[in-house]
Structures
1.
Amino acid sequence: MKARHLAVALLGLGFLLSAATPKEVKTVAGMPAQQALALGERMYRQGLLPSGEPMASVVSGDIPVPGTSFSCGSCHLRAGLGSWEGGVVTLATNGARLAQPRYWKFPNLTPAEREELKLQNPPARPAYTDEALAHVLRTGMDPAGRTLHPIMPCYDLNDRDMAILIHYLRNLSARLSPGVDGETLRFATVITEGVSRQDQEAMLVPLNNYVARHNQFSKGFGNRMYLAVGGNEMTGSYRKLALSVWRLSGAPETWERQLEAHLKKEPVFALLGGLSNGAWAPIHRFCEKEKLPCLFPITDLPVVSDTDWYTLYFSKGYYQEGQAAARFVNGMEDLPSTPQVLQILQEGPEARELAAGFRETWQELGRPAAALQERVLTSAELADAEGLRRRLAQEKVGIVLLWVDARSFPALASFGEDRRMFLSSRLLGPQTTAVPEAVRAFTWITYPYRDPLEEPAYSKYADTLLAGMKERYPERRISTRVYSLIQVLRQGLMDMDRHFYRDNLLDRIGMQRDQALPDYLRLSFGPGQRYASKGCFIMQLSPGANPRLLRRSEWVIH
């Protein structure tokens, strides 16, 4: 019986692929098909006609709305599988779903599965022809004669532009993405040269334990519950998981070529996590080029971008701490109208990102660039405590952002209470609580994680995925972040259902509810958002030999 239902599922998948695959065409609307596809993508995502003008549409019968403010992708999302918000359900408009009838009950079953299970209910609408698609886009009436929700725009498109948009819709999520077949969903994780054995173990143990547990789930598929129609529909979306480890060596400029070789040899659906001691940028660029999702690499040096799509980060890393400091300083009530600010940073990408986050946010807040100064310290200058003390004493500014590690501590005695100093807990690491007591009253610390007093109540759940791990290094926050990755992935796989398109995975994650997880007070999501943790505490240290961190801000600083 179990084998029979697996055969039915595979037959249904084959029907879906054959029915959804658009016919190969060479020209569309008098132009090469690939050119039409690119123009159709712009219409769908940006609401711009091939001419570059905004698409014209109306909603609720007579309210004009330009396509640039209400694009197809804003509701149907990037993969075209639809969304739900404010009680409004937006249906799928991708090639695979348009090519099939839509049913009220068990809509995910393919026609072959419906026939096998003897489901007789008629479809809510037949499959769309090109003519029916053009009609519904212009009038809002589907092939069954029903009028769509009034929020659905009706577009004023000429025949040429309509043909281009329909060509794109026919190809949108029409074929399942690489890395998936009828039984298995394949992932990989990336580890670059130089990552310690302990760090590798902290990431791989929970990932492999999760994959093993997930793959045990299918053992119950032979029972009566899964032989019912609803159970058959659920098991039709189930895939076992496979996880590979892609190891990169040598200079970062060679990583793209190595990644290309890995992907060619072993196509995967997405990358999970990943570890590198340096910047993640080379791997980020590869994922953008290949349109390969990368979920939550363990890095504090992400790429900060408003336009890139395929890598989802926990936060903006060091850059985000700089942002938080700028907003906190800007909100201080007793600042002079034009405060003089100095950023002192050590060499290296971490301090540069902290400084960039502060500088750019400070300017966005309307503060004059002339009031912000920056100094870069060499390693030798940072190690010279006496020289650094004299240098700090000479600086005549009210606010100092000291983006350096604990080597600066001996020189902090030169500061007096007439100044305000900021440090980065991520840069200080375990030395955060070693800040000299003499300066704690006028020193603030950026802290991008959950309050340490609350963290144990959440971190204990991550221990369930650490079976077999010989040593644990909680201060590195690797295994706890992998635990958070797994929680987001699990929900994403369920929400994705059997629609295994890479963009759809990212779309579904973007629609998840906020999650409270070990390292971050809150992970929040939204369509197109690439940084899930959007907060950072500003802390101070209490007096005494065993100080604790005291909150001086809310999680999100405005």
2.
Amino acid sequence: MKAVFGRTPTSPRRLRDVILAPCQRLGGLLGVLAMPYLGAEAAGASFDFEVLQARAKALALQPPRARLGEVPAWLRQLSYDQLRQIQFDGRESLWRRENLPFQVQFLHPGFLFDKSVHIFEVQGSTTRALPFRRNYFNYGSIPSGDLPAGMGFAGIRLMYPLNGFEKPLSEVGSFLGASYFRFLAAGAGYGLSARGLALDTAEAGPEEFPVFTDFWLERPDPEARSLTILALLQSESVTGAYRFLVTPGAATVTTVKAVIFRRRDSNVFGVAPLTSMFWRGENTGGSADDYRPEVHDSDGLLMQNGRGEWIWRPLENPRQIRVAAFADENPKAFGLLQRDRNFENYQDLEARYHARPSAWVEPVGAWGRGTIRLVELPTKDEFNDNTVVFWTPERLPPLGEAVVWEYRLHWFMDQIQPPAGFVRATRHGRAAYYEPGLERFVVDFDGPNLRTRGEADGLVPVLSVGAGAVLNHATLQKNLINGTWRVAFTLKPDGKGQAVELRCFLRHAQDVLTETWSYLWQP
């Protein structure tokens, strides 16, 4: 594992809380500004995923072209609040009249959405365009001006009876802004997002934001429990064909297949990226200016590597940009989790951070050698995403050959926990009066097996401290109040200010009883 500090890349953050509908936020704004446009789909043309792959490959051989169907100035000049007044009329939802289990609503361009995407319906093997229509929307007090004939939509919102057979249907997911998308599980509110591809994230130069420019929605059967969406991705460096199979439920699963063609090499090629927000947590302390103890969409990165080891990396709001890379071969899974579900730790009835979903990437097939890369950026508030994680392959095929990835993306509320114990909490601070010059860390481990064990069972904490500090003292205690086990230890920094890598797990004899706590402390 390596850590990199002090770079000044273009931030992968997105503007938060731009609400186009309840809980709908804006994502990846800068990536939608100047991208190529495919062109109108011929009505009735035969179409499937193989056709889309061939089209993406052909486009990769051409220079990027300017997009058509620009959003007019009067829409681009709308404020955030004005755009919120433009609401989609739910009676115009796609497939509502057919009473199909899935419905699709369209999102209006404007404000920072100054380029539009084009939507098509696929029935059987034929397509039909779904053009923008003014009567789909209620404009409130906004005086509407002229709309060009070629303008599309800002994105789409998917509706489904997520919590049973409710009418009207619940929102289950959306595609909005660059290649961002996100989904909900039953009982969850919107939180972190996924992206189609991350290019040159946290590099010295500008980050590139590929964009979904066109979507094809396959008409579902009356008894369907899944919806298939095809999308064309384009940027200066790549084109790609994407297939999403969306299966909503208590845990919503999005199976993603991406076939990507590169026009040129990128310094960082990030597969299955997730982006989230971490402002404050139990490991960072509270704020004198904010009554809420913790504020975050996700509190940790969980990984199950190719060797079967489970690793928990608590998130941080660092003082400077940092990148960590976890080398692996054929990873089993990784994801950003909201592990803490206790409302008392957030105290936010509006944002409901305790109900933000987790997202878990499960590769399909062998991904080979590469790294799971975690990027953390400093933020002064909760309105910017400052965390992104993705897989970077060690090698890619030559330019012109397809880069193919497939994975299942799980969105859920119930926790994914390793068979052994897991980290329940991480805390850090100082006891200046009797520990001068020392840093104290407290890590709580939990799990059904651990709760049955007593202090006479001979559990041992296994601690490792990287360069930059030395271990001063460590203890392991059973918490008789809640049944967890607490490792408390102090470090003596060497005064050079370098980042210190910390690891800890619990062992009994030769048996590893917990996941590995992995933490990067920056003096």
